[in-house]
Description:
The protein has helices at residues 27-34, 38-45, 53-66, 72-78, 95-109, 124-136, 152-160, 184-197, 213-228, 245-257, 270-282, 316-331, and strands at residues 8-11, 25-26, 68-70, 84-89, 114-119, 141-144, 165-168, 179-180, 203-206, 238-239, 264-267, 292-294, 311-313, 346-348.
Amino acid sequence: xxxxxxxxxxxxxxxxxxxxxxxxxxxxxxxxxxxxxxxxxxxxxxxxxxxxxxxxxxxxxxxxxxxxxxxxxxxxxxxxxxxxxxxxxxxxxxxxxxxxxxxxxxxxxxxxxxxxxxxxxxxxxxxxxxxxxxxxxxxxxxxxxxxxxxxxxxxxxxxxxxxxxxxxxxxxxxxxxxxxxxxxxxxxxxxxxxxxxxxxxxxxxxxxxxxxxxxxxxxxxxxxxxxxxxxxxxxxxxxxxxxxxxxxxxxxxxxxxxxxxxxxxxxxxxxxxxxxxxxxxxxxxxxxxxxxxxxxxxxxxxxxxxxxxxxxxxxxxxxxxxxxxxxxxxxxxxxxxxxxxxxxxxxxxxxxxxxxxxxxxxxxxxx
Length: 367
């Protein structure tokens, strides 16, 4: 019988370098010494095929050398609830995630669960440290907007170790856990199709980390809408990887120097769109008159800007509530047999996306 994640393993007096009465060896200690995750140690000690044979043998050899003995009292403690849920996202400064948190906290709070938030900043090592720490503190479950670079083996390893896991907003291909996210391809097609219907033919896309599912899918939706309208995708300005308001401001110089200059911009999120609006105006180009700008997420304040921002409502309340319900179900021991379908977002058209100015660059001749 082996320990679950976070359970202490007791080093016996047989282990070299361990004096009788030394502090108990934990999975976290072993993970740190071997430069692997806590979940990997737990899986290896249970002979899980999810861990490569060489890694499994290295971990077991280390445990044997330490002379560990399974701690049954700690195992009993593992069955107790901590009433803590870890939530990891890439940008807590994005107001969209604040709206997701609010719905998530409201639903989990009704079951006396406390939410602990980590801002991993798309740093997979930082994400893993947060997860390992929570595992050692017997967290009841994990809600993760996965960092770029997250391995499917790590997500499935967590699930196989017995901890409830739910992914939000970003998918990890092959993960055997529930995923709650919107249909980013459909949302991007909605907004780009709107810009095309307004008469635009030079439509830039700015932002999105393309190694993430949301960045990939919104870029794909942009391309599909252009292709369906017979517009050459290769002739469009596409600036990847940008995510913040500052990124949006910094992109304006490249946007305005492009030939032909875009008459419309699809921003990966509202943060980028807000940066574009302010920097365009400073450059003497009036958004909503000289150029169309559309965002994504329809965060608080999008409708009250000047011009009011056209954006895709990404339904954060529904995402938060659904993720909370799935988490509570898993904590209660009920299997999730049906994965939730992607949530369909909604386009909200406002002042920032008028038709192109007569005679402006990128109209019908750019088709």
